Amino acid sequence: MILKELSEILNIDLATTVARFGNNEMLFVRFIKKFPNDKTYSALCEAVENKDYKAIETSAHTLKGIAANLGLSEIQSFSDNIVIAVRNEKYDDIGELFVTLKSVYQKAIDAISCLE
Amino acid sequence: MKPKNTILVVDDIEMNRAILAEIFKDEYEIIEAENGAEALDLIEKYQDKIASVFLDIIMPVMGGIEAMEEINKRGFVNKIPVFFITADNSEDTMKYGYDLGVVDIIQKPINPYFVRRRIGNVIELYQARERLTHVVEIQEQEIVNKSKEIIELNYSLIETLSTAIEFRDCESGEHVHRMHDLTSFILKKLRGKMKNVDFDDETIEEIATAAIMHDVGKIAIPDAILNKPGKLTSEEYDIMKTHTVKGCEILEKIPQYSKNPIYQYAYDICRHHHERWDGKGYPDGIKGDDISIWSQVVAVADVYDALTAERVYKKAFDHDTAISMIVEGKCGVFNPKLMECIKSFEKDIKDKFYRA
What we know:
The complex is a heterodimer.
Chain A: H1 3-9, H2 14-20, H3 25-34, H4 39-50, H5 53-70, H6 73-87, H7 94-113
Chain B: E1 6-10, H1 14-24, E2 29-33, H2 36-46, E3 50-55, H3 64-73, E4 82-86, H4 91-100, E5 104-107, H5 112-168, H6 173-190, H7 201-211, H8 223-226, H9 234-241, H10 243-252, H11 261-272, H12 293-307, H13 319-327, H14 336-344, H15 346-353
Helix pairs in contact in B: 1-5, 2-3, 3-4, 5-6, 6-7, 6-12, 7-11, 10-11, 11-12, 12-13
C-alpha cells in the first residue's frame, strides 16, 4: 500500500499532515510506521481495565495529541471524547467510548502495517 | 554578544519533538528533553544559549505546569520565552500558564507555518530587547567613565588653581596635597566617634577637595602683606583676615556654584576655617557647633600643617609639640571632643603626615 491509499482509508488530510512534518514525507512515514508500537495505547487499555481514571485521562490525552499530529482524525476525536468524559466524571460512558476507539485504532494499525 | 541559537523542545513523545525540531532545525540548534525535570537541567546548563523553550504540559516525571512554576521561580521568564505546546485546551490550564509567564500557547496539532511565524516573532523580540539592554549597559558604563573623567578634571583644575595661589604665599604644592589628605584622613577617623560625624567616602572626598580651596581668598591680599617677613601691623592683619571673605566672593562667581556640593563646602570652609570654638576666631566670631564640623577639621589640619612647616618667621615644630599646642589651645581653642579624638589617633597622623 502506498501513502496515498493509506490516507484515503484512514481519512488523513495528507497535505496538511505532511506539511506538519516540514513537508518531509519520509519523516512522516517514519513516525506513522512507529505508531502501532507506541506504548500510549496499551497504557490506555491497562488504565481502562484498572478503572484508573487519572491514568485514563493522561494516556487518552497523549494518544489524542499523537493521533492529531499524524492526521489520524478518528483516533484523535475518540480519544478526546474519553478525556472529556473523565473530566466531566462521566465514568459510566468510558466503557462504550473505549470500544469505539478500539475499533478505529485497530483499523488504523491494520492499514499502517500494510504500508510500504 | 552572540545571539542565542538554541531551542529546547520538551515533550515525552518523540514524534512531537521531531515535528517541532523539523520546523526550526535549519535556523536553530535543537536540544530535547522528555520531561520537565530534564528540561530544567538543560535550561540551567544552557541558559545563555537558549532562545526559546517549547513545553508540553502532560509528561511523566514532571509535567509542563510544574516545570513552568519552577522556570518562573528561578527567574528565567524574563530572559527566555516559553511556549506551551499542548493538545489540552482547558481554559484553566491556559490561564494558569499565562499567569506563570508563558508567552503563548500553541495548540496541537500544530500548523508549522503559524508556529514558525508566531514563535519566530517572539524570539526576535526577546533578542532585540536583550541587544538593547546590552547597548544600554555599555552606554551606562560610558557615562560612568565620562563622569569620572569630569570629576578628575574638575579636581585637577581646583588643585592647579589652589597650588598657584599657595605659591604666592611661598608655599609649596605640598600644602595643598596635605590639606586634602589630612582632612580626608581625620574625617574618616572621626566616623562613629563624634555625634553626627559619619560621612560616606564620596562626601569626605568632596569635603577634602573643598579643603584645598580654603585659602583662595589670599589671591586678593597684596604681596606686601602676604609676603611680609616681619610681624604684621594690626591694620595689615585686618586686611590679611579678609582672605576668608574674599575667598567666598571668588567662589560665588563660579557658574553652577550653587548646584555643586564641593563649592558649598568650599564656601563654608573659606569663610570659617579661622573661626574658633570659643568665638574668638574670625571673620564672624561664631562659636561651638555653629562652626561646621568640616570647617573645624580643616582648621585643625591647616594649623597642624603650618606648625610643622618652616616659615620665614619661625622654625618647624616637631609633631608632638604641634599636637600639644593644638590640644592646649595655643593656636586658638578647638572643639574639646574633636581634640579628644585627635589625641586618640595622633600617632597615625605622625606616621602618615609628619615631615621629619
